[in-house]
Design brief:
It contains one helix and five strands; from the N terminus they run ββαβββ. Helices cover 7% and strands 30% of the residues. A hairpin with a 2-residue loop joins strand 1 and strand 2. Residues 1-6 have low confidence and may be disordered. It has one domain (2-92). It is mainly beta. The radius of gyration is 16 Å and the shape is elongated. The protein has one helix at residues 25-31; strands at 2-8, 11-18, 47-52, 64-67, 82-87. Strands 1-2-3-5-4 form a five-stranded mixed β-sheet, with helices on one face.
Length: 102
């Protein structure tokens, strides 16, 4: 599965089934918003959601990871978006049998 919608009302959207080697497309989408001479305040939030076919972090059982750029004091570099990685091999759900369970 690979769906790419470059701009929806100024938002950058890219959805793919990822492998561990190509999960950093967020920076590419984010950096392409500005042209020479534009102000950084014009940047729009950008989100990357990676559906990983392989496990990235093998030492834990958590399947959802949310990343933001922070410094050593946990100050966020930008409030714009982030990167979510979902390790599909770690996801374990019971079978949905009724609409109430959805």
């Amino acid at each position: 599965m690979s769906v790419q919608i470059d701009k929806v009302d100024g938002w950058g959207i890219k959805i793919r089934v990822f492998t561990c080697s190509d999960y950093l497309l967020w920076a590419d989408i984010y950096s392409q918003q500005l042209k020479s001479g534009q102000e950084y305040l014009e940047l729009r939030p950008t989100y990357s959601i990676g559906l990983l076919a392989e496990n990235l972090l093998v030492d834990d059982n958590v399947y959802v990871h949310h990343y933001k750029m922070r410094d050593e004091q946990s100050q966020t570099l930008t409030p714009h978006g982030g990167i979510w990685l979902l390790e599909l091999k770690k996801f374990n759900a019971n079978q949905v049998e009724t609409e109430d369970q959805r």
